[in-house]
Amino acid sequence: MEKFTPKFQGGPWPAVGRVLHVYAVPDLHTDQQLARLVDECHDAMRPFPITLMHDGTLHCTVEMVADTTSDKITTKERDELVAALRAHLSGTGPLEVMAGSPVANRAGAFLDLSPDDALVELRERVRDAIREVRGPGALLHNGGRPHMSLGYAWDEASSDALQTALRRISPSHAPVRFGAVQLLNVLFQEQPRPDGATAWELSWEPVATIELAGASAPQTAAAG
Amino acid sequence: MRKFMGPKRLWGSEGGPAEDWIKPHVLWLPQDDPHVIEYFGRLREVVARFPDVITPIADENLHMTIQSIRPLTTLGVRVDSEQLAVAAAAVQAELDGMAPFDIQIGPARASGSAGIVEIWPEDGPAELNHRVRNGLLAAGLDLPPAEEHFWSHMSCGYGNQDSDTPELATRSDQFASEIGKSIRPAIRTRATVSSVWLVWERQRPELNTYTFERVHQLRLGQS
């Protein structure tokens, strides 16, 4: 792994900028199996140079509003975005997926989420809402595989050694339920560490909660 | 990525006894399951794009290791066909009381020296490993120590050289990125484990793979 550096529009993260994101945020008080799995993953990750994502920063990124920083989005535009998200997600019910296995990667480690069909569909609806309000230029990423980041690396280390530690965790999976998505004002700040290094740390301010109150899609638990 | 069959992993040595390259193993073999073969076929397409990094595994060599067996018994005698037959009967007795179980195969990811495909849930393979070990030990075979948590996995490729240049490191990173996402949406498949095979497994460093000769099929839930 190598030091994680957040990007915005293909370049450095804006110095004082916050960026609107839609995240699915797990409730670790309700999903206690997930909480245990995350704790065990964090125990395995602790010897490595990784900033851990705890309750309050643990999330699954659904989409970023990537055309500009949030300070340049007016309250009216923000309200329109929330309204569009509510409209496009009105038919979407709560999602229940499986988190696991934990995987070490270049940026740190994450929990894979599956089956991903419903999450991919959720993402498409969110993208439709963003596109409708802010145009196609607000979508700059293809999304990738749904996952939940467990932590971001702040220095180089062996991903293989971390994977060896992560694969000893059993059970390696836990169910997670997303009953809402959050529109958040997301900030990455490069913070000094006691050892002189710096680490990018994530924080956010809530903007709106969009409940997933539609009919639940049948959970196939099928391969996917 | 590093070379998978590096010096520490080699079973035999140049000029050493030919039989050192062969060890008995208990494997789960997916060759009769077209869904699994099709799944690994799609992984192979990704692996094959990186011949400078990793060697794909042919359909006939795909396997999940349930237990490796040391080639010498606890008495220091090389395991032969007769002892394998005794072990087969002992393992079969252990498996009679275990029902077939389903596994989820995938997703794939890069490890330090291989393309790894995860198996989940862990319970079935762990119990299978436990029962197989009991049978093999009862038959007097010598085994590596049990893992605290049996790591059930399959491989979709073996690293063929150390990525020790910037170009190879970049290629290795590209492989790691692509193997995890290139076969979406179906990044997993399913299978039922209803039997395992006691085999003679041969390490083939010159081909960067393992081949095996099937000897005894042992079925779950026979009773």
Summary of the model, kept short:
The complex is a heterodimer of chains A (224) and B (223). Chain A has 224 residues and is of the alpha+beta class.
Give the name of the CATH architecture of chain B: Alpha-Beta Complex
Give the strand order, joined by hyphens, for the main sheet of chain B.
Answer: 2-6-5-4-7
Characterize the main sheet of chain A.
5 strands, antiparallel
Tell me the CATH topology of chain A: Cyclic Phosphodiesterase, Chain: A
Organism (chain A): Kitasatospora cystarginea
InterPro entries (chain A): Cyclic_Pdiesterase
Protein name (chain A): 2'-5' RNA ligase
Protein name (chain B): 2'-5' RNA ligase family protein
Q: How would you describe this structure to a colleague?
A:
The complex is a heterodimer of chains A (224) and B (223). By secondary structure, chain A is of the alpha+beta class. Chain A has a single domain, classed as Cyclic Phosphodiesterase, Chain: A. Chain A has helices spanning 32-45, 75-88, 117-134, 159-166; strands spanning 7-8, 11-12, 18-24, 50-52, 60-64, 95-105, 108-114, 147-153, 174-178, 180-192, 198-211. In chain A, the strands form 3 sheets. In chain A, strands 4-8-7-6-9 form a 5-stranded antiparallel beta sheet. Chain A has a 4-stranded antiparallel beta sheet with strand order 5-3-10-11. Chain A has a two-stranded antiparallel sheet with strand order 1-2. The radius of gyration of chain A is 17 Å and the shape is globular. With 223 residues, chain B is α+β, with helices and mostly antiparallel strands. Chain B contains 4 helices and 9 strands; from the N terminus they run E-H-E-E-H-E-E-H-E-H-E-E-E. In chain B, strand 4 (101-110) and strand 5 (114-120) form a beta hairpin. Chains A and B meet through strand 6 and helix 4 of A and strand 4 and helix 4 of B. Chain B: This is 2'-5' RNA ligase family protein. Chain B: It holds the Pfam family 2_5_RNA_ligase2. Chain B: InterPro entries: Cyclic_Pdiesterase (IPR009097).
